[in-house]
Amino acid sequence: MVQERILVVMPNWFGEVLFATPFLRMLRAARPNSCISVLGVLRGEEVLANNPDVDEFIVFDESGLHRTFSGKRALTHVLRSRRFDTAFILRKSLTRTFLLMLAGIPRRIGFDNPKSGWLLTERVKAPPGSTHKAHAYLQLLHGPLGIPIAPPPSYGYYVTDQERAEVRRLLRERGVAEGGSFVVLHPGGNWPHKRWPPERFAELAKRLAQQRHEIVVMTGGPEDEAWVGPIMQQMDPLPVLLVGKTTLRQLAVCLEQARLVVSNDTGVLHIACALKRPVVALYGPTSPAITGPLGDPTSTIVIHHPDCCPRIPCLNPRHPGSPGMASITVDEVFAAARQMLDPSVRSSKREVRSEPP
Length: 357
What we know:
Elements: E1 5-9, H1 14-19, H2 21-30, E2 35-40, H3 42-48, E3 56-59, H4 69-82, E4 86-89, H5 94-102, E5 107-111, E6 122-124, H6 133-145, H7 161-173, E7 183-186, H8 198-211, E8 216-218, H9 225-233, E9 240-241, H10 248-257, E10 260-264, H11 267-274, E11 279-283, H12 288-291, E12 300-304, H13 323-326, H14 330-341, E13 351-352
Parallel strand pairs: 1-2, 1-4, 2-3, 4-5, 5-6, 7-8, 7-10, 8-9, 10-11, 11-12, 12-13
Helix pairs in contact: 2-6, 7-10, 8-9, 8-14
């Protein structure tokens, strides 16, 4: 019997949706008989597919279907029809919080803020800005529901056997044998100044192939194809190229099968952590303390030189140059990769080149 109907309003970036999965896991554990629905953008639905802590995903298409007043009114009717008892809103959003009120959800819990806090029924003091976002979301469960906060052990991402079979076929078509070993390099990023220089990815791939005899698989979305082109021109031997060739779900399965993932600070990095893969994470203008990888610390190396950036985090996509990323050398990334590829020499403690998360 369902005891309570709960709605959780997700952030937009798919990396931050992953940060919210410990929140969902803890909520499910505390309210096992509740029906937990999620409201979020379409890309969030891909991240939360097959998640056992989510019963329903309601898409909020703010730039399309729900852009107009009539579209938002239709969404309000959908929310009202679900008869939610409680809503948690994980982001500061006047539009979303207003929709919760119009939908008649009696208990609306979120972080206190001047923008939309006045529409909440329970306002939780926002944690310090240096708090990891996965930890910050848990604060919404502690005060209002009295749920003890434990450090989130990892994110949650769930793939299916059918998806695994699709990716095995995709890799076979590109010369990677069934069960073959490979390393994933993910050179993309949502902002240019979060990307390690392409020529350094090329040199790293060359060393992995020539000195470690690793098969290198390059991944990314269609938006990364222009960025990866210069890398391909400098690589010998050529990597297996999956940039723009997979869905997000297929890319995740590729990560799951990799021996190692080397990535800039992107949502893909956090999917790799959720799937318990060894990772080398490259951080420049963002802070590992706030958006760093979670999971097994012995399988994660974060390389970050915060002194090279004028401000951390620097959230301006038009920031000129990328001194933080430029300060990361091929030598140190290759050394970190060798450490992760050889479990016998892995450190018993996560190696972080800045403040720990």
